[in-house]
Structures are given as structure tokens and as C-alpha cells.
Design brief:
400 residues, alpha+beta, Transferase(Phosphotransferase), domain 1, six-stranded antiparallel beta sheet, 10 helices, 14 strands, 16% strand, globular, disordered C terminus
């Protein structure tokens, strides 16, 4: 008799759990034997009826397709039950070859894990992340706990959103709107207006997600630096990062008497055109109203038109050396593999969200190669040769 744990879904289909893929404070994730494309997330504490109702709504209402290659969502596939019919977990697409987003924007981690990444990779990752957030919002979902560890990125630049069961969900039942709140979050990515507030007691909004999105894009494009971290010039003790966010100490904006950007930090002026203005709206002098924060669509459209101009920062000399083979020998299959569960069968046959990048996006290739300036094809070769002979003739006459 096998000692491996067995679970089932509400339809009676059985699944055998394999090796553990990961473990967190709220759940453990396992492989599913015989189903390489799936993973099982088993909660440490059995969810109650409210959590079950939320998950059932999510299963019945998957998000629309993102409409851009390389934008992937690990959406719940099915509920998992024990022998007594109690909810103990969910079935998810299995994500492979993905690393947390911090690996891309931290120079040292990037040199170790993604050595082939250039500025174009970071811009592409930012565009795909913005598209992902906009897709969720167009589908009516608030991510809530958007941070550097629940977004994965692959060698190819695919961006994958995980931990989707922590989303804030609004459902309509018996004519009433029910909000299932997102009870988790990280202070570093929490908007100023809800800093220090219990997530159990507040409804999150798209604007809160937009703040977290702007922080992540800032970190991707500014060498991993947090927009509210800097050199404190005040006479009192330096504030915590949470307090700095709450008080609006964005050192990259207008001159401040209390905080300056960290030493050797890039300036907003060094960024590609248009990006500084969006960061100002998100964090700077023009961010007084949280309703003014750029949407995912605004970021994605601008980034789709952006050509890399700023250099990528290399890791510091004391960073661990890397052989450099991962990027050099990247294979077509070396990318994060998952899917948007049920996106093609969206209830009611509704079309994708009314949003598309302004320019043709880069394909989801294993290694994104920044576009090179095209060399103009020779034109009018005969005419140029004729002009050359005339010039040579004039020179000859002058010599004679």
C-alpha cells in the first residue's frame, strides 16, 4: 500500500501528490503524479466556507486572455478535497523555469541567474508586467498582494503571476455584491493611504495595485532601488521605509531638504523618454491624488514604444562569478510554462479586454535579442559609381 497522499476534486477524480515543490506560511505545493502540467497547493489550515465560495467564483470566472505573448497567470484549475469532502487545496498550472522578479532587478542576482539580460529584457519584463496587471483589472480582479516574490520571470522574459488565490474578489450572488478581501501584503509595495492598515479591514482598489506596479517597474529600471529609499538628511532619525512611503519622501522628484537619492543611483532624467513623467505621477509632486497613478495600460503602451537608451548596471566586483552558460546555451523550451486556465472559454464568450499595446510586441523567445538598427540596403549603385568617376576625373584634371 502506497503511503503517498491522495486527494480528489469535487467530480470524484483522484490525484496522487508527489514531491514538494515549495512551502510557505499558508500552504505547501506538490507535484501531481502523472500530470506534469499540474501542481497541488495544499493549505496548512483548511479554508472555511467563505474562502471556498471565493475560489468557486474564481473557477467560474477566469480572467480574459492577456493578448500579449509571455504574459501568464497561474489560475486555479480545480478545488481539492479530502476523503470527507472538506476543502484542503487547489489544483494549479505547474510553473517551471521561473525565478522571482527580484532576480531580474537585483544586479547581483541577475548576474548569477540571468547573465544574458540586457536593458531591453528589463523593459520587456516591465511591459509584460504592466499588461498582466491591466488584464486582471479589465477582468474585475484586484491583485492586492502584488510584490517581487509572487511574480516570476523566465530566461525568455515570460512574466508569470502566482498566488492568485490571494486576490481580492467581488462576486454577485442573489443580487448582492460580496467582496472577498485580500488579507495579505508587503509594506514595501503598499500604497501610502493604506500603510499600517489591517488588510482584513480594508477593500483594496485598482489604485493600490497601480502603486505596487509602479514600484516594481521602478525597481526593474532603476537597478533594484526602491523609489522611497534614499539618503536621509534630516536632523532626526531616518524614517522606516513604510513611514517614508506614508509621508511621500520620493527623493528623485523635486529637491528635498530631508532626503536625496542614494549614492550612484540613476536619475529620472537618464531614463528612456516618457518614463520619468509616469514615475512623477506615481510617486512625485503630482501624486497627491492616488487617482492619478498610471494604469497598467498606460505603462504598457509607453513601454511598447520604448527603445533602450539607458545602460544596464553590471554587478559589483565582489558579486559571485558566473560561468555565463545559462544565457549562452538557452534552449527554446527554457521558459516559464503555464497557462491562463480557461481563458479561451471565458463565460459568455466575452472578448479580451479593450486594450492592446501600441506597437507589435516582441515575441516570447527563449532569449530576447534587442532589435538592432537595420542597415540600409544599397540603392542606386550605378548612380553612385557614375558620380565617383566624375569626381576622379575632376581630380585628375586638377593634377594635370
Amino acid at each position: 500500500m502506497s503511503g503517498k497522499r491522495k486527494v480528489k476534486d469535487p467530480h470524484g477524480r483522484g490525484y496522487t501528490l508527489g514531491k514538494m515543490l515549495g512551502s510557505g506560511g499558508q500552504a505547501e505545493v506538490f507535484t501531481v503524479e502523472g500530470r506534469k502540467e499540474l501542481a497541488a497547493k495544499i493549505y496548512r489550515s483548511a479554508p472555511g466556507p467563505i474562502e471556498r465560495a471565493k475560489l468557486e467564483w474564481m473557477l467560474a470566472h477566469p480572467p480574459a486572455p492577456a493578448g500579449l505573448p509571455g504574459v501568464l497567470i497561474a489560475w486555479p484549475q480545480e478545488l481539492l478535497l479530502d476523503d470527507h469532502g472538506r476543502l484542503i487545496g487547489i489544483l494549479l498550472p505547474r510553473v517551471e523555469h521561473g525565478v522571482p522578479l527580484i532576480t531580474a532587478f537585483n544586479p547581483r542576482l541577475r548576474a548569477q541567474k540571468l547573465p544574458h539580460y540586457q536593458r531591453a529584457h528589463l523593459l520587456l519584463a516591465a511591459q509584460r508586467l504592466a499588461t498582466l496587471v491591466e488584464t486582471m483589472h479589465q477582468s474585475g480582479y484586484v491583485i492586492g498582494d502584488l510584490n517581487e516574490s509572487n511574480v516570476l520571470i523566465s530566461s525568455a522574459g515570460d512574466v508569470v503571476l502566482i498566488d492568485t488565490d490571494s486576490f481580492q474578489v467581488r462576486s454577485l450572488r442573489d443580487g448582492k455584491v460580496i467582496t472577498y478581501r485580500s488579507p495579505v501584503g508587503k509594506p514595501d509595495y503598499t500604497a501610502p493611504e493604506i500603510q499600517g492598515v489591517s488588510f482584513h479591514s480594508v477593500d483594496r482598489s485598482f489604485e493600490h495595485d497601480r502603486f505596487a506596479l509602479a514600484v516594481l517597474i521602478f525597481q526593474l529600471l532603476m537597478d533594484g532601488r526602491h523609489p522611497y529609499a534614499g539618503r536621509w538628511l534630516g536632523s532626526d532619525d531616518a524614517p522606516t521605509l513604510e513611514k517614508s512611503i506614508r509621508q511621500g519622501h520620493f527623493p528623485y522628484s523635486r529637491p528635498s531638504a530631508v532626503m536625496q537619492p542614494p549614492p550612484q543611483a540613476p536619475s529620472l532624467a537618464s531614463l528612456e523618454p516618457g518614463l520619468a513623467a509616469l514615475f512623477e505621477r506615481a510617486f512625485g509632486a503630482t501624486s497627491a491624488s492616488f487617482l492619478n497613478r498610471p494604469s497598467g495600460e498606460e505603462w504598457a503602451v509607453l513601454l511598447s514604444r520604448t527603445t533602450p537608451t539607458a545602460p544596464i548596471r553590471q554587478a559589483r566586483p565582489h558579486a559571485a562569478p558566473h560561468k555565463g552558460k545559462a544565457g549562452k546555451n538557452a534552449k527554446p523550451g527554457d521558459k516559464a510554462r503555464t497557462s491562463v486556465a480557461g481563458a479561451a472559454q471565458r463565460p459568455g464568450g466575452a472578448p479580451p479586454p479593450p486594450f492592446s499595446p501600441a506597437a507589435e510586441p516582441a515575441p516570447a523567445a527563449p532569449v530576447y535579442v534587442p532589435p538592432q538598427p537595420a542597415q540600409a540596403a544599397p540603392r542606386g549603385g550605378a548612380s553612385r559609381r557614375k558620380v565617383l568617376w566624375i569626381i576622379l576625373g575632376v581630380i585628375a584634371l586638377w593634377i594635370i
